[in-house]
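Look over this record before class:
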Amino acid sequence: MRKVIVYNVISLDGYHTGLANDVTVMFPMMGDVFDSYNTELLRAADVHLMGRVSFELFQGFWPKVAANPDSEEWTDAQRDLSQAGKHIKGIVVSDTLTGNWQGVRIVKRQDAYQQITDLKHQEGKDILITGSRTFWNDLLAHDLVDEIHLLIGNRVLGQGVPVFAGKTPASLRLIDTRKWEDTSHVLLRYEVLHKNI
C-alpha cells in the first residue's frame, strides 16, 4: 500500500508558522535544507496533496522558478525542487478553489477521505503533503497519514500557529533522524501507529 507522508518545517517550540499564519518566519534560517529534502521526497512520490492555502502559496512562487530556471535569482536547491515537481500529479482539497489548473485536480473536502483511501490502495509511489497543516491534521484524525517528517529549525518563535491542531491523539514511532552538516537543523521521521492495528 502507498504511504501518505507529511513533511513540515517547525520551530523548536513546535510552531508551524508565526503570528497571522506567517510562513516566512521559518525559511530565512533554513537555507537550502528544506528545499533539498523536499526534492528527495518528491522524487519518491507521484502525488502531491495540499490544501487551498498551501496551493495558492506554492502557485505564487514555484511557476516562476519553472518558467525561468536559469535565472540567478534561484538557488540550485530551488531549481532541483522545481524540476522534481514537474511530473507529480497535484491534488488540492478545497471547497472554495475554482478555476482550471493544469495538472491539478480539485477535490471537495467531503470526498477527500474516500479518494485518499482509494489512492493509498492503488499502485504507485508515495503521496506527499507539504505544508497544509489544517488539512493533514484532519487526515491524521481520520487515520490516513502514515509518516510525519518534521524538519526542526533552530529558532524559538514563542508564539504562532502550532503544528498539531485539534485534540486527536496519535501514537508515533521514531524511525529516523538526520542532521545536515554545517546547520543546526534536525529532521525527525515518525511512523504513525494506526489505530486499527
About this structure: The beta strands are 4-10, 15-17, 45-51, 89-93, 104-107, 126-130, 147-152, 161-162, 171-179, 186-193.
